[in-house]
């Protein structure tokens, strides 16, 4: 532990090291959050270099800057959404639109169930008998909207 005692860095260097580590953390596990806290740590380090503020003020600067940078980052990402190569990647129901399905339980009075692959989904649509083929035309709150297969 003797090496730990020799590692007497000034506060500003600890803030800048923290900024680098948080930046590396953002690269390793991207979540678009650590980068804003890293920016706050870097800002705190720079303020400490320029003004030599005491540790309590450094913590306040870091906390305030973290909040402001996270708020700024959120606003920026809401205004600049990331375009996905597959916008339906996490929307399984929407991916089913256009697929042909088989009626598993008759659709009576607009409600029934359809088979999609190896799963059964609730469905709404025109009255159809069990075993009839239908086409998914939409999705509403996790319920497939089907129509007569053309």
Summarize the entry for a quick read.
With 150 residues, the protein is α+β, with helices and mostly antiparallel strands. It is 47% helix and 23% strand. It has 5 helices and 5 strands, in the order H-H-H-H-H-E-E-E-E-E.
Structural account:
With 150 residues, the protein is an alpha+beta fold. It is 47% helix and 23% strand. It has five helices and five strands; from the N terminus they run H-H-H-H-H-E-E-E-E-E. It has a five-stranded mixed barrel with strand order 1-2-3-5-4. Strand 1 and strand 2 (111-116) form a beta hairpin. The longest helix is centred in the middle third of the chain and has 25 residues, at 55-79. The protein is rod-shaped and about 80 Å long. It starts with a helix and ends with a strand.
